[in-house]
Amino acid sequence: MDILESINQHRSIRAYKPDPVPDDLLNEILAAGIRASSSGNMQTYSIIVTRDRALRERLYKPHMEQSMVLDAPVLLTFCADFHRMRRWLKLNDAPDNFDNFMSFMIATIDTVLVSQNVALAAEARGLGICYMGSTLANCDEIGRILQVPPNVVPVAGFSLGYPAEDPAPRDRLPLAGLVHQETYRAESDDDIAQIYEERNVKGWERYMTFPRLRRMVEESGVENLAQIYTVVKYTKASYQEFSQKVLAYLQAQSFMNNEVIEKAID
User: Fold this and answer.
1) Which domains are present in the chain?
2) pTM of this structure
């Protein structure tokens, strides 16, 4: 499949066939993944492949009980990882400058780049994926289950397998609303309304097709898609809780020096 065709056909797959993903195919897409750009070619990431059913059952709750955790034959967890790099520095008597927020951000960018490469390679080979934001939100619990060492933090992950569904591609905001020429263009209120015009309709219609979400919307009394996002799905309280959890885990994993992280948590 042509790469642009593959990209444009992307869908999040939540229902999977029980067929296993062959080792040679999985290794092929992982090898393509690590060709992603990397800051300084340090490759400050690790990829954890989880097939074991019992282990996936333990991951089910921190992944917010999403069905694909159990239904997909493979879970891939992409971790920001300076553990390997810092050990190598120590073995070579080199200064260690990576106990700070910038290091975590560099590792996170590397991690997301490689995860998307793997996703594109998987889809080009007829597999389906679904990213799970729960990987970062519950990185501490997922990290404990996956036994990650210090200086390693799970930041992205997705289910992987052969699709058992064929959902329609979801809408995207118009290109003109996302791309700025030369410098950033501050939109007017009318511009913002136009950018989200189609999303307001299609997004609302999509959420109303899910009985659980429809019930939550009706019970909350929200009136539009924007309110669904911040009243029903992504509440301020939940984001504050996840923020504190991630910051505390960065400290526990020695990814930031204590003075900086303690100020951030306070």
Assistant:
1) 3-167 (3.40.109.10), 175-234 (no CATH)
2) 0.92
